[in-house]
Amino acid sequence: MPEFEQRNGAVVAVSTDSKFSHKAWLQTPRKKGGIEGCKYPLLADFTKKMSADYGVLQEASGVAVRGLFLINPEGVVEAIQINNLPIGRNVDEALRLLDAFQEHQKNGVVCPIGWAKGKEAIKPSEAAAWFEKHAK
Amino acid sequence: MSIRVGEKAPEFTLDGVIKGDFKSVALKDYRGKWLVLFFYPLDFTFV
What we know:
The complex is a heterodimer. Chain A has helices at about 1-5, 20-25, 50-55, 90-105, 125-135; strands spanning about 10-15, 40-45, 55-60, 65, 65-70, 75-85. By secondary structure, chain A is of the alpha+beta class. Chain A starts with a helix and ends with a helix. By secondary structure, chain B is mainly beta.
């Protein structure tokens, strides 16, 4: 997805389906419930080990719940969101998190509630000034 | 095995499909990049 690539990011999807099921889904048009044209990899966790390692395996059904993990360039987990089955995620929120962690990495600032790219973050040494300006 | 923020993500190497081709994909392929990794229950549902 270009929004992630522009930020030195990549997207990878995982389910406990087989790679053959993934391939069929990738060949199915969007209007038929498929994901034809999808550019990022779909991984087949057919043994369910990876889903168990990431804490998203629902043992009763054998499927993975809707987990999202943001992993930094050194392989360290920066953020985790796990939704139960009925509710999907939000691409904008994933991008917001990515922007926030990159802002922190680049400028040493911390990003408070509701922060999004373009808003002023908090410099830890000047936090008092930030609160003076932004607190309601 | 548990997963926590601030700790190394569990390693993985799995078969997958990229643009129609079967390919092996590992966590270490993404060193140097930010990785958004997401799980979903089943193909042919929403993600």
